[in-house]
Amino acid sequence: MRADQPENARAAAAGAARVLPLGELTAAGVRVALRAILEEPAYRASARRLQAELHGLPPMEHTVHLLGGLAPASPPDPPA
């Protein structure tokens, strides 16, 4: 399992992706899945819905600002 598998599973659960079982990880299996993703309108609609959700989130600068507020004004003294 790779680090991106949880994201892939969430995209599949949202209808914007397809996760292939190990037995389907062949050239033919990937071809069939890719054709479905590119040709079935439901995948595109789901991807657009997810895109709109992401665009509705606050910008990264907002998160950086919030995290900056959690950090102390000056670093703590090193242990003696």
Structure characteristics:
single chain; 80 residues; mainly alpha
Total domain units: 1
% residues in beta strands: under 5%
Shape: elongated
- Unreliable runs, pLDDT <50, ≥5 residues? none
How far is it from the N-terminal to the C-terminal residue, by CA?
43 Å
Helix content: 55-70%
What is the number of strand segments?
0
Which structural class matches the secondary elements?
mainly alpha
Give the radius of gyration: 20 Å
Q: How does the major sheet shape up?
A: none
Mean pLDDT: 89
SSE arrangement, N to C: HHHH
Number of helices: 4
Provide a descriptive summary of the structure in words.
By secondary structure, the chain is mainly alpha-helical. The protein has one domain (about 5-70). It is about 60% helix and about 0% strand. It contains 4 helices and no strands. It has helices at about 5-15, 25-40, 40-55, 60-70. Helix 2 packs across helix 3 (about 40-55). The chain is elongated and about 65 Å long.
Secondary-structure map with pairings?
Elements: H1 5-13, H2 27-39, H3 41-55, H4 60-70
Helix pairs in contact: 2-3
Write a short abstract of this structure.
With 80 residues, the protein is an all-alpha fold.
